[in-house]
Design a protein that fits this description.
Distance between the termini: 37 Å
Radius of gyration: 19 Å
Largest sheet: 8 strands, mixed
Number of strands: 12
Strand order of the largest sheet: 1-2-10-7-12-5-4-3
Oligomer: single chain
Number of helices: 8
Length: about 325
Amino acid sequence: MSTDQATLPVIDLSGYIDPQSPGDKERVIAEVRDVCGQYGFFQAKGHGIPLNLQRGLLNSIDTLFNLPEEEKLKLSFLDNISRRGYEKSGMSLREGDALPDSKESLKAYYIGQEDPTTDHTGLCGPNIWPPLPNEQFRGPVWEYYEATYNLGQIIWEIILQGLGHPVSVMEAFAKHPMVPMKMIRYPPQSTTLPGQFGVGAHSDFGGVTVLLQQPGKHGLEVNHNDKWLPVQALEDIYVINCGDMLMRWSGGQYKSAKHRVINKADGECRLSCATFFHGDLFATNPLNPSDPNQDTVGQLLVKRFRNQFSYLPQTIAAVGAPA
């Protein structure tokens, strides 16, 4: 497939977050509805996340990945039942990929306050924090996480209204939602094998993704009409997209588009951070309670990632996914 030089639409969310004139909110809702139906992706400005939080988060990611490898391996996500922690380069391999992704990532930070104990599913629990001073990592990372959690809620509000549903529908599926955050550093493309991507072509499994790209370090491409659409990494601009679950819940009105990453930063590493706002583990389609497909958020999660994340048998059983 060829690469398209068209640009992904940019939507100013400030009209919804801080409306100044009658009709501002309705305009944003309509714009998001139209672009999600056409692309499944859009770029966002006026999102309300301060630039200093974005920069602080990127500095913290860089600090983390510059730790010695032996220190990072002590934080391995495979040693944590909730699959939080460090993912060594090459661990991820989705079905259909010829080679593992070339990324290394700190995997999955969950909603609001940390859960003090691990729940019966194993998917909710306390976070793992690296041995760094609070001001170098935990402080700025957690403040950023809370900001993108809030933005994820706002995006869901907009999406629901665009589908003709009231914001109150969120009460049916987002009382204690799964909201993991993943921080990634991609190695220089020159260090990867032929045919190996930073992240291979895939669609996101769940609800709404809020993505921060390191400014000037391009690499994201979105599939649109069988062409790859490059998405520039611009300062203070977020990339928002819909996942497979949201596409299903919307009856196909909103798209879940495939995307990939090819690090185009010349001879340099590339940072990004994605916050995924899904829903409660045992929530089913809140937009159509009579939907014959009664898969829960947790079941969809385990079905998609059971091999990639090596979920334990007790986790698979707890969410009711097939063994």
